[in-house]
TrEMBL record:
<keyword id="KW-0732">Signal</keyword>
<protein>
    <recommendedName>
        <fullName>C4-dicarboxylate ABC transporter substrate-binding protein</fullName>
    </recommendedName>
</protein>
<feature type="signal peptide">
    <location>
        <begin position="1"/>
        <end position="23"/>
    </location>
</feature>
<dbReference type="GO" id="GO:0055085">
    <property type="term" value="P:transmembrane transport"/>
</dbReference>
<dbReference type="InterPro" id="IPR038404">
    <property type="entry name" value="TRAP_DctP_sf"/>
</dbReference>
<dbReference type="Pfam" id="PF03480">
    <property type="entry name" value="DctP"/>
</dbReference>
<dbReference type="InterPro" id="IPR018389">
    <property type="entry name" value="DctP_fam"/>
</dbReference>
Length: 368
């Protein structure tokens, strides 16, 4: 009998050891459509790489285009474990994460997506514990943000001067772009960019302020045939890569390490790819009937004057939302923008060198 028990015990251990590890799948939501740069350059290849390197132990189900959760519902969906992770847009949650919104409100200081991405992530991950604490209140582990290419004014009709713009309804996300739209004489409409096409089609929008690449990735060149060639800041901040803390901690350490190892590469691919998309779309635009128009001097002068007030406006807006010591965040971001401008001036838009810079300057110094 003892021999039988010993045999069965050994057999059971052998069977357990021979059994493959149970695969874990995390759900991830991105309100932007499948064709958007965030999915093509970052999420899809990142998730596929992690799947391969973990031999299928960790996989992801990407819900793009708001198929599971809309942009404005992501933060609560992650908190409530309706999804395991997703893209949290700070501009939709200005009162919930006011310090992180400070970064997004500094939009007019963003000129290059590589510079802005490095500066934002260094600010949040290394210089602003309070920013991370805001996400932790929603059970969110913040891992990274991105920045778009410079925003332009894209309209159905030519709108090169203030008289042309007066009264036009324009998609202008968040307080900062709402202020700018109003300053130009337009009427701001705060809707996700994923809803802009339908809004243009229904006459709810005349224009939008956004990246040139959206003409293609969001099919906006079907509706907006006139682009004013005047950079108007960019979107930066939020939590593009973020997970519910329980979901993240449930992943075994070896698989978490694989994900983090490949994160800088995904971020670098997105920054460089987004910039390339803009250049490619600019070349294609003419064949789609899109005009690239020069702004009238009055519009350029108005923008220059507006930029000078943005630090003061950002701090005042943050304090009105209850943010404590927003000056610290502004100071850190401006310092890091200067630092990353120096880095990008040296390495250019070389994807491999930028990935290494993200590793060396940020991701080697944090633990998730």
């Amino acid at each position: 009998m003892k021999a039988l028990i010993s045999f069965l015990s050994k057999f059971s251990v052998a069977m357990v050891m021979a059994m493959p590890a149970v695969a874990q799948q995390l759900s991830y939501t991105n309100y932007l459509p499948p064709t958007h740069a965030t999915n093509r350059y970052a999420l899809e290849p990142l998730f596929e790489t992690v799947k391969k390197e973990t031999n299928g132990s960790l996989t992801f189900q990407l819900h793009a285009g708001g198929s599971m959760v809309g942009g404005k519902g992501t933060i609560s969906a992650i908190r409530d474990s309706l999804v395991d992770g997703g893209f949290v847009v700070s501009l939709y949650h200005q009162n919930e994460i006011p310090l992180n919104t400070v970064i997004s409100d500094m939009a007019f200081f963003a000129k290059d997506p590589l510079v802005a991405m490095g500066a934002v992530n260094e600010t949040v991950l290394l210089d602003c514990k309070e920013c991370l604490d805001e996400y932790r209140k929603y059970k969110i582990v913040y891992m990274g943000a991105y920045a778009t290419t410079p925003y332009m004014l894209m309209c159905k009709k030519p709108a090169q001067g203030l008289a042309d713009i007066k009264g036009l309804k324009m998609r202008a996300a968040g307080t900062v772009y709402g202020r700018w739209a109003t300053r130009m004489g337009g009427v701001p409409v705060n809707i996700p960019n994923s809803e802009a096409y339908e809004a243009l089609e229904r006459g709810q929008l005349d224009c939008l302020i956004g990246s040139m690449s959206w003409l293609k990735t969001l099919s906006l060149w079907d509706m907006t045939k006139n682009v004013v060639d005047l950079p108007m800041g960019a979107f930066l901040g939020g939590a593009f890569i973020s997970f519910n803390e329980d979901s993240w901690n449930s992943v075994k350490k070896e698989d978490r390490d694989v994900f983090v190892k490949h994160l800088p590469a995904a971020m670098a691919r997105l920054a460089v790819g987004y910039a390339q998309d803009d250049m490619d779309v600019a070349k294609e635009a003419k064949s789609k009937g899109v005009q690239i128009l020069e702004p009238k001097p009055e519009l350029t002068q108005l923008l220059d004057a507006y930029r000078q007030d943005e630090v003061k406006n950002t701090i005042e807006a943050a304090k009105s939302r209850g943010a404590k010591n927003p000056e610290k965040v502004v100071e850190a971001l401006l310092k890091n923008l200067e630092k990353w401008q120096t880095i990008v001036d040296k390495i250019g838009h070389d994807e491999a060198k930028y990935e290494q810079a993200l590793r060396d300057e940020i991701y080697s110094k944090v633990t998730f």
